[in-house]
Amino acid sequence: MPSPHYQKQEAIPGNAWTYSFKPVFTFEITDTTAVYQPYFIIRHTQAYPYNNLWMWLYIKTPGDTVTTKARINITLSEPSGEWLGRGMGEIYEQRMLISLGDSVNLSRKGTYQITMEQNMRINPLPEVLHVGLRVEKATIKR
């Protein structure tokens, strides 16, 4: 597994993700010949009540004054109910490749900012311990 270009995780206060808690991840891209892939990281307990997680991503790219908004769905378990990702006791951690939408790619030099907002029908969303962003430099070039 390649080392990340950027990785940061935020602890969810009280292990219950409220609509108002919107972690922000800021990172730099300097090599415009490389392809970068973003991953969503989540750590949750086995008591998490759903098999997925809907989220809003707010993406600010270098030089843009407008923020792009993308709604994504992260699958956390198999249809059988078996959790995806790695488990240690009652804790599961998963890293999923995400699409930032057709209008966003991580190819411009500069500062990127991605804000995450949970978009499930329940507030707060229980049993979520951490969420994060990982950006990896892909092995292919542009």
Can you walk me through this structure?
With 142 residues, the chain is an all-beta fold. The protein has a single domain, classed as Jelly Rolls (Sandwich), CATH 2.60.120. Helices cover 0% and strands 55% of the residues. The strands form three sheets. Strands 1-11-4-8-7 form a five-stranded antiparallel beta sheet, with no helix packed on it. Strands 3-9-5-6 form a four-stranded antiparallel beta sheet, with no helix packed on it. Strand 7 (86-88) and strand 8 (91-97) form a beta hairpin. It is globular and about 40 Å long. The mean pLDDT is 92.
Task: Using brief descriptors, characterize the structure shown.
single chain, 142 residues, mainly beta, Jelly Rolls, 4-stranded antiparallel beta sheet
Structural class: mainly beta
Number of helices: 0
Helix-strand sequence: EEEEEEEEEEE
What's the N-to-C terminus distance? 21 Å
Uncertain runs are none
Residue fraction in strands: over 45%
In total, the number of domains comes to: 1
Mean pLDDT reading: 92
- The CATH class is identified as Mainly Beta
As for the CATH topology, it is Jelly Rolls
Count of individual beta strands: 11
